Amino acid sequence: MILINLLPHREAARKRRQDVFNISLAVSALAGGVISGMIFLWYQGQISSQEQQNDLLSREIKKLDDQIKEIAALEAEIAALRARQQAVENLQAERNQPVYLLSELAKQFPEGAYITEMRQEGQLVTLKGVAQSNERVSELLRNLAYNSHWFAKPELIEIVAANVTLSPREQRRVSNFTMRVQLVRSSEAQKAQAASSAASAAASMPAAIAASAPSAAASASVKK
């Protein structure tokens, strides 16, 4: 016996496939939505965490900026105090500067030269005087330039020949000179003197050792 199905089975199968497709599509859309939501929430968490870190860094940077400003203010105060201290030390050291000036000039002026006028403006000293010859003036310049720690940069402004009347019958030719010299501050001059003394002591040590070597050898030979 042959059974013949007269129902529209193709339409029913097509409907079942369409239903399965729709269900799969809905499940896929739901899964995509869930995954997208999870990714969105994860990114939101990361953004929120980064924003918190940024806020923390901003607060710390502000604190550091305030500390830097305080440090800068303290450094400015320290610099001002050091400047005041240095000014006080300079004033204390330069109280005796006129004494050093006159004493050093007396040492450095050669025989046959003397001062007629001296003027000081700050650290610049102008000297006017009379010398027996131009050679005396040159000697004075050399002494001020190389033999003294209290003077620097001597400069001859002018030198003029003149005659000095010693008696009604005797006249002598002299040189009137004007020069400028820089007066070194007391602290710097004392440092230069200390350095020069140390160098002289170091230079004299080998000579002393060489001088003591023969006596040591002689004593050793006597002991033998």
Main sheet specs? 4 strands, antiparallel
Task: Give the number of helices.
Answer: 4
Helix-strand makeup class: alpha+beta
Helix content: 55-70%
Q: Using the alpha-carbon principal axes, give the shape.
A: rod-shaped
**Poorly predicted sequence stretches spanning 5 or more consecutive residues:** none
Amount of beta strand: 15-25%
Order of helices and strands: HHEEHEEH
Measured between the Cα atoms of the first and last residue, the distance is 153 Å
Radius of gyration: 50 Å
Number of strands: 4
User: What is the mean pLDDT?
Assistant: 81
Strand order of the largest sheet: 1-2-4-3
Structure description:
With 224 residues, this protein is α+β, with helices and mostly antiparallel strands. The chain has helices at 9-93, 97-108, 134-146, 186-223; strands at residues 113-121, 124-131, 151-167, 170-183. The protein has a 4-stranded antiparallel sheet, covered by helices on one side. The N and C termini lie far apart (153 Å).
